[in-house]
Design brief:
single chain; alpha+beta; Glycoprotein, Type 4 Pilin; Dna Ligase, domain 1; four-stranded antiparallel sheet; 25% strand; globular
């Protein structure tokens, strides 16, 4: 998938306006003209991270490829701002201090050797029984982790299968187009 700067700005605007409407308890944000843009119709997964004063306040995503990108961005943005149970929901007075990051996901690919994981390029998704967990590609580099730390943290803190649980889990990799409101200017 290829997203131009214009498309990235539109996705950030969808996220920002959707969050603002939800937090202010207004009608959901709609812009029918966005339905005409082919790149925003692509069916792919997405994660939206919400920051206030540079502190994470929510991060929720989906790997579902059932809905168009613009709809997934809208849903995940609202969920990240209002439903991430790790944080209190965003308040109207925080909207001006809000910073957004969007990760548009490629399809997942199952791997059989952890040497296939490229830090900074690949996110990981672990599945063991009913337990699942993921870490986005940018997490490993921002935390300065090696592959074992990346897998261990995902296994323990995201999938809930213990630090070494990745050794007996199905491991998938995926890539992401990552952009934020500071670098894109939206």
């Amino acid at each position: 998938m290829n997203l131009s700067t214009v498309h990235k700005r539109l996705l950030l605007e969808i996220a920002r306006q959707s969050i603002a409407a939800a937090v202010r308890m207004e009608e959901p944000y709609e812009n029918p003209s966005l339905e005409l843009i082919e790149e925003l119709k692509t069916k792919c997964g997405v994660f939206v991270s919400v920051y206030v004063n540079r502190e994470l306040r929510g991060c929720i995503g989906t790997f579902s490829e059932n809905d168009p990108l613009r709809q997934n961005v809208q849903k995940m943005a609202v969920s990240a701002a209002t439903e991430d149970t790790r944080f209190k929901p965003l308040q109207p007075d925080e909207l001006e201090k809000m910073h957004l990051e969007i990760s548009v996901l490629s399809p997942r690919k199952k791997i059989s050797d952890i040497n296939e994981i490229e830090l900074g390029k690949h996110g990981i998704y672990l599945r063991k029984g009913l337990n699942r967990g993921t870490l986005l590609p940018q997490v490993a580099t921002s935390q300065n982790w090696n592959v074992y730390e990346f897998l261990g943290n995902c296994a323990k803190y995201k999938a809930g299968i213990g630090w070494d649980g990745w050794k007996t889990a199905d491991i998938f990799v995926y890539e992401a187009i990552v952009f934020d409101s500071d670098r894109i200017g939206a």
